[in-house]
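Section handout, structural biology tutorial.
Before the tutorial, make sure you can parse a SMILES string by hand: atoms, branches in parentheses, ring closures as digits. In the record below the ligand is pyridoxal-5'-phosphate, and the chain has 381 residues. In the tutorial you will relate the predicted structure tokens back to the input. Do not try to memorize them.
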Amino acid sequence: MYRPLWIEIDLNALRGNFKTIKSSLAKDVKVIATIKQQAYGHGLIPIARELSYLGVDYFGVGSLEEAISLRENGFKEKILALSAILPCFAEEVLQYNIVPTVGEINFAKALNKTAAKHNKIIAVHVKVDTGMGRLGLHYDEALGLIGELSKLKNISLEGLYTHFPAADTDPDFTNYQINLFNRLITILKNANISFKYQHCANSLGVIHYPHSHFNLVRPGLILYGIKPSPRMPLDLRPVLSLKSKIIFTKKIKKGMSVSYGRTFVAKKSINVATVSIGYADGYPWSLANNAKIIIKDKFFNLIGRVCMDHIMVNLGDESCVKIADEVILIGKKNNLAISAEDVASWAKTIPYEIVSRLSLKIPRLYKNASQKQLHFLKEKF
Ligand SMILES: *Cc1c(COP(=O)(O)O)cnc(C)c1O
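Predicted structure of the complex:
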């Protein structure tokens, strides 16, 4: 590692968060660990492995690529593909034993045909749109379409689910969605169609809507110890830290400017440090003149614009900060902390975007892995 920029992943924190989430659920509620987009930037395989050792029930992934990667790494858990898969990939769904999300009839027919050809049954989860306006059967047409799906002999309807767009800001709408979902379950039951699993709850559902748990929940963000909204009754610990080093320091005089656009002009003589991270690494350009970092035991301010692979920091009069000193961009040092939520609010975005966009080129160092995982990490990461 020549460039001093890395991510530390605390697998002990992940284990703690998973156990905390599990213990907040009723006994019969199972968990789909949502690990799409490289486990929100934390690294798909090591995160999945740790969760697997903890006995997670199900994995939720975004793409078929991620699902196949789990299978190729030997995972035997059930895998729900949360996104829509193109009908031309029905063969892969069967081959890798993936549970696809079904939201329209043509994909279901393609799956049914493939399964029939191989004399197999493909289990699917049917997604109903109760207000997200993205994937899934239109609520009003759900009864008719699910009736049609139930007639396809080589697919089995294992799950029924929906998704919340505004569980943080709009409890009335979220409760309305839960009611719609309940009503659909009853209507289907009366038509003799039932599902092994019904699920709605993302992280916010897990925390704030216990009546949305049904018998399966799909937490993502809270697994990684990040809060989807400020109100957080669960005791979670951040899993990810982002660290770099100072690669240059200089004194600049009053009136001199720092970085592109000359948006920062020194009002007096100051020491400036250059840190090895930039927007190409996923550190947002929108943080210009508006972020803190930790060096030694102090907060310092980012000054000027974020460059492609550099940022500059105002050291003020501080002269004991040196080249090769460690810099914390996200993480904790003694009693100082910068969370992904902090960086998101400075960058005017959401913590989901901060962690999931951290470049995959940044090495991930896995700490506190369980004994079982250690040899894998030595081999591959
Ligand atoms: C990403 C995702 C989740 C997890 O959401 P969090 O807010 O991270 O808990 C759950 N369900 C679906 C369908 C998703 O796409």
